[in-house]
Amino acid sequence: MVTATSDIRFDVPLYTQTHAAHYLDMPPSTFRSWAQGYHNRFRNRPPVHGAPLITYLGEPHSPQPSIPFIGLAEGMFLSALRRADVPMQQIRPALELVRERLGVQYALASKRLYAVGAQLLFEVSEGQDLDRTERREARKLIVLKNGQYVFREVVEKYMRNIHYDDGDGYAARLHLPGYEVAEVMAEPQVNFGQPYFTATGTPLYAVAGRLRAGDTVEETAEDFDLPVDQVAELSERVERGVA
Fold first, then answer.
1. d(Cα 100, Cα 103) in Å, to the nearest integer?
2. C-alpha angle with apex 171: 78 to 1, nearest 5 degrees?
3. Digit-coded pLDDT (tens) for 149-164
4. What is the spatial distance between Cα 16 and Cα 155, in angstroms, rounded to a whole number?
5. Which of 11, 73, 137, 142 is the most buried (most CB within 10 A)?
6. What contacts 24+ positions apart, CB below 8 Å, involve 78-83?
7. What's the half-sphere exposure (Cβ side, CA atoms, 13 Å) at 104?
8. pTM score > 0.90 for this model?
9. Which helix (H) or strand (E) holds 105?
10. How far apart are CA 198 and CA 209, in angstroms?
11. Contact 212, 238 (CB under 8 A)
12. pLDDT (tens digit, 9 = 90+) per residue, 199-229?
């Protein structure tokens, strides 16, 4: 298996699980189950186990940053699958098979997944390693286009926002979801991985901090030289507690 050399993307925890969930526009509980796995017990049926799906460098229940940039990128892909309304519990086995066939570390954040992942998903859905439900759910993520299997548009849209390093082929920059007006990016070499407005390079946390302190949208936009509508969009997310 190909391994990554020492790199801030892989081995430095930059985000708490809650912040990572907010950046990906999803519930923290969902992100937490992806990072740490889960074990659900039931009274009248067998327990359900789920292994971690993304890179996690912390200790359980720790409030400290535990997610490296590559984990955020892996979460971005899984978030795309979530938007496709496919139960993660039923797609997990197919994802594990695809990761094995890709043969690279951090497969969910690799350009190879973008390039051949849909075709591999079709191939594993045709095999005998999955049950009928798992095969059916896997096929819901892909469509046949010009004789080749590709990810559905809802998945493809998210994957287009993952920008890969030309050298090792792993995610290097993310165009974060959840914003219709502002363009917000995250890359480990800028602001130590913290999201920023591409219009000015201003860190998201700096603008959000001013809004939480009571400054108006107009005052904040003027002070940071940002468009008012972009700051207004962030203000709405601050009010909802997801910024």
1. 5
2. 85
3. 999 999 999 999 999 9
4. 25
5. 73
6. 78/34, 78/53, 78/54, 78/108, 79/24, 79/25, 79/26, 79/158, 79/177, 80/151, 80/154, 80/155, 80/157, 80/158, 80/159, 81/141, 81/155, 82/26, 82/30, 83/154, 83/155, 83/158
7. 17
8. yes
9. none
10. 18
11. yes
12. 999 999 999 999 999 999 999 999 999 999 9
Q: If DSSP codes are grouped into helix, strand and coil, which group holds residue 186? A: strand
Inter-residue contact 109 to 170 (CB < 8 Å): yes
What confidence category does residue 185 fall into, taking pLDDT thresholds of 50, 70 and 90? very high
Backbone angles phi, psi at 87, to 5 degrees: -60, 125
Per-residue pLDDT tens digits for 51-110: 899 999 988 778 899 999 999 999 999 999 999 999 888 999 999 999 999 999 999 999
Residues of 26-39 as b/e, b for ≥16 C-beta within 10 angstroms?
A: beeebbbbbbbeee
Looking at the DSSP bridge assignments, the partners of residue 164 are 171
Domain ranges of the chain: 8-173, 178-243
- Note whether 100 and 121 are within 8 A (CB): no
Residue with tokens 């792993």: 170
User: What is the number of H-type helices and E-type strands within the chain?
Assistant: 11, 8
Q: Please name the amino acid found at residue 164.
A: Y
As a whole number of angstroms, the distance between CA 38 and CA 41 comes to 10
**DSSP per residue over 198-243, as a string?**
TTT--BHHHHHHHHHTT--HHHHHHHHT--HHHHHHHHHHHHTT--
The CATH class of 178-243 is mainly alpha
| ∠ CA 64-188-60, rounded to 5° | 25
